[in-house]
């Protein structure tokens, strides 16, 4: 079975730095993220519902239902709107590259507003790397 990712997890998998909700979640996240961060192309199914990462999350109550469902759906909706994503198969590395080329600090702040991991993860550094490099070149 392939990796299913919900839209906002395209960002989470980039900014992930080894922290999580539980030991089981961190182990699972480490596995999935290591597969996605390989150089060779990795096919993913973008889903607008529960995904591979949700399976080990202690906040998941049922399929497409999480303790913070409204917030999670808002993150997904914003990622879809900003990057014109569809529920279909993508090459993870190409999609991440596209997002990194388009994202701005304001977009990231808007998408991740209310995320408890955002302030303590490597999201800004890893996701905004292209944006920040562009600033360095402009100076």
Side-by-side strand order of the widest sheet: 1-2-5
SS summary, helix count: 7
Low-confidence stretches: none
Q: What is the 3D form?
A: globular
The major pleated sheet works out as:
3 strands, mixed
The portion of residues forming beta strands comes to 5-15%
**Which structural class fits the helix and strand makeup?**
mainly alpha
- Compute the CA-based radius of gyration: 14 Å
What percentage of residues falls in helices of 4 or more residues?
40-55%
Distance between the termini: 46 Å
In short:
This protein has 139 residues and is mainly alpha-helical. The protein has helices at residues 9-15, 23-36, 69-83, 92-102, 105-112, 123-127, 129-138, and strands at residues 3-5, 43-46, 60-62, 65-66, 89-91.
List the SSEs and their pairings.
Blueprint: E1 3-5, H1 9-15, H2 23-36, E2 43-46, E3 60-62, E4 65-66, H3 69-83, E5 89-91, H4 92-102, H5 105-112, H6 123-127, H7 129-138
Parallel strand pairs: 1-2
Antiparallel strand pairs: 2-5, 3-4
Helix pairs in contact: 3-5
